[in-house]
Amino acid sequence: MAEMFMMLSIGVGVANIALALGLLVVYGGIFARTKAKFTLALFAFAIAFLAHNAVVVYSYMTMMPLVPAAMNPYLFTIGAFEAVGLGAILWTATR
């Protein structure tokens, strides 16, 4: 069961990378059209989430045996909430 949560955490991390890339595309397009400095801050925000999730996926894949099994459901839940937040931001940014 714990192994399943770790694999789900990796899957959610990959989904978060895709959402962060989507934000980069959207914010890049907005900046190209408007040259608004605030959009650069949003772009940096998306880069930070992209880097964070790349490190998360890498660390989960390489250190899976070292993570206590009791933590796996919590790691999955944290990633899932992050995916909901990134999804809401992406949905809002595309409207």
Structure report:
The protein is mostly helical. It is about 85% helix and about 0% strand. It contains three helices and no strands. The chain has helices spanning about 1-35, 35-65, 70-95. α1 runs antiparallel to α2 (about 35-65) and α1 (about 1-35) packs parallel to α3 (about 70-95). The longest helix is centred in the first third of the chain and has 33 residues, at about 1-35. The N and C termini lie far apart (about 40 Å).
Task: Briefly summarize what is shown.
It contains three helices and no strands.
Q: What ranges have pLDDT less than 50 throughout 5 or more consecutive residues?
A: none
SSE series: HHH
Tell me roughly what share of residues is in helical segments.
over 70%
Number of helices: 3
**What gross morphology would you assign?**
elongated
Quaternary state, please?
Answer: single chain
Q: Gyration radius, to the nearest Å?
A: 15 Å
Going by helix content, strand content and strand pairing, the class is mainly alpha
List how many beta strands DSSP finds. Answer: 0
Question: What is the typical, i.e. mean, pLDDT?
Answer: 93
